[in-house]
Amino acid sequence: MSRVGTEPLNVDEIKSNLKTKIIGRNVLVFNRTSSTNDIARRYIEDKSNDGLAIFTEEQTAGRGRGVNKWYSSRSDSLICSILLIDNRLNIELLSLTTAVAVADAIGKPAKIKWPNDIILNNRKVGGILLETVPDKKSSSCIIGIGINCRQKTDDFPIEIQSAATSLDIESHSITDRNLFAKRLLSSVDHWLEIAKSSSRKIVEQWHLLSILSGHRVILLFNGKKFSGNCIGIDPEKGLILQLDSGGVRMFDAAHTTIIK
C-alpha cells in the first residue's frame, strides 16, 4: 500500500470539492510532456477552456525565465500550466498576483523573490513562467508553475543543492500532491478575483511576502547593471528602486534579472 501523498496525480482527486469560479473548471493530467505551457497553447482557440489547468508527472523540456531550464525527476514536483483566455490583467499585475497565490498555497513560511521565484528557508522551492499569446481577438496568457515537492537534497544537481529545496525537505513530511494541486488552483482563483477589483490589495500582500522590500538590490535590466534600495512595486511598471546613483526608477519583470 502506498503512503499518503505518494499517489500519482489524479483528475478526480484534484477536482473533488474544488470550489473555484474559473481556475480548474477543466483539469488535464498527462503522464509525460515536453512542456505543459506548450500543451496549453493547443487549447487557446476554444474559449470554454478558460481556466484550464494542465498537470504532468514528467516534463522533458521545462522552461524557466530566459535560457533557464526547470529540472525535475518524474513525480517529484507539481508541474502545472493554467490557461487564461482573453486575460484583462496587465502582465506585471498578473505576475504579482500569481506569485502571491503560489506563496499563499504553500503557506506562511513561503516568500516571494521578484519576479518569479518562491522561497522557503532562503532557498528556491518553486518558480513561475508567464507567457502571453496575443492575437487580434483576445490576449491569452499561460501561467506556468513548478513547485518542488518530494525531492531530497541529493536529488538536485550538485550545483544548485545549496540554493534549492522542496516541500518535503522543509516540512519533514510527505507532500500530498493532489491535495496541494487543489489548494494551488483555489488560491490562484481567489487572488485573480481580488486582482480584478483591487490591484492595491495585491501590492499590499506582495509587500508582506517579498524578500526584497526594504533591501538593497542589484539587478540587470536589458543587460545593464543597476543597484539600489527596493522601495516598492508598481502593478503596471514593476519593481521600484531608489538607485545608489540617485533618483528612482522602475524595472519591468520581462527585461529584468535579479543578481543579488
Please characterize this protein's 3D structure:
The chain is α+β, with helices and mostly antiparallel strands. The protein has 2 domains: 199 residues, Bira Bifunctional Protein, Domain 2 (BirA Bifunctional Protein, domain 2, 2-Layer Sandwich); 43 residues, SH3 type barrels (Roll), CATH 2.30.30. Strands 1-2-3-7-6-5-4 form a 7-stranded mixed sheet. It starts with 10 loop residues before the first helix and ends with a strand.
Describe the protein's topology:
Elements: H1 11-15, E1 27-30, H2 36-41, E2 53-56, E3 77-84, H3 91-106, E4 111-113, E5 117-120, E6 123-134, E7 139-148, H4 167-171, H5 177-197, H6 199-209, E8 216-221, E9 224-234, E10 238-243, E11 248-251, E12 256-258
Helix pairs in contact: 3-5, 3-6, 5-6
Give a short overview.
It contains 6 helices and 12 strands. It has helices spanning 11-15, 36-41, 91-106, 167-171, 177-197, 199-209; strands at 27-30, 53-56, 77-84, 111-113, 117-120, 123-134, 139-148, 216-221, 224-234, 238-243, 248-251, 256-258.
